[in-house]
Specification:
239 residues; alpha+beta; 8 helices; 4-stranded antiparallel β-sheet; single chain
């Protein structure tokens, strides 16, 4: 249940709450994948942190919403609201280059939530924008057991056969060569450092937030090193 907030910078943001059932790790995935997309020139709305104050929850009339707001006091994720945008339905299709870039991003981060059932794409001013990356990076939901095995994540193939943009793919291997070359250790660390410390949940084996950050860096870099093991093949329009 996201909410639409006007913030003190007078901007309008779709807020994803820390107190929602999916938990803080979803917000972490949103930041990591969204900011990675931005640096790869894939359109994604601006991300900010939104401070939800206790007074907002106190005066909310709906009890269910009040409970959510009360559980979300503190920093939450704000996604820039794109007024007049509409959900992707193929009537304004992505270009082949855009499709390949989004498919590559989803394959790299293991984001399975971009199908025709739930495209998680918007069209705004004639361009396709990516949203909702909380389902990516499945490994952190399994910490400290199987999810701590970076090699398992690094080698897992990505099935893009049901991806909403699969039929538009034209040159995924070429896109991999172009995009993977832009990702460096310093870039990954820069993006991981953007996650608010209070969103990094402790787990056995992690002595503090720095250990959690390092685990994200390790997983993302190892997956990059293990390409093209996880790169999708035989897409609808691939040749």
């Amino acid at each position: 249940m996201p909410g639409l907030f006007e913030a003190d910078d007078l901007g309008m943001y779709v807020v994803k709450f820390r107190g929602a059932g999916q938990g803080l790790k979803v917000l972490v995935a949103e930041v990591l994948v969204g900011e990675l997309a931005r640096r790869l020139d894939i359109r994604v709305p601006r991300l900010v942190t939104i401070d939800v104050r206790r007074e907002i929850a106190r005066y909310e009339a709906d009890e269910e919403v009040q409970d959510l707001l009360t559980a979300s006091i503190g920093s939450n994720l704000g996604v820039d609201f794109l007024p007049g945008s509409f959900g992707y339905d193929g009537s304004t299709p992505a270009t082949a280059a855009e499709a390949d870039a989004v498919i590559w991003l989803d394959a790299y981060t293991a984001n399975v939530d971009r199908t025709w059932s739930n495209p998680n794409l918007l069209v705004w001013h004639g361009h396709v924008w990516t949203i909702d990356h909380g389902a990516a990076l499945w490994f952190h939901h399994m910490w400290p057991t199987r999810g701590a095995d970076a090699a398992r994540f690094a080698d897992q193939p990505f099935d893009a056969s049901k991806h909403v943009l699969a039929d538009l793919s034209a040159d995924l291997p070429g896109t991999h060569a172009r995009l993977s070359g832009q990702i460096t250790e310093s870039l990954v660390r820069e993006i991981v450092d953007l996650v608010p410390e209070e969103w990094l949940e402790p787990a056995p084996g992690f002595e503090g937030p720095d250990d959690v950050r390092e685990a994200y860096v390790t997983h993302l870099l190892m997956r990059l090193d293990h390409a093209p093991a996880w790169l999708p093949t035989n897409l609808g329009g691939a040749r």
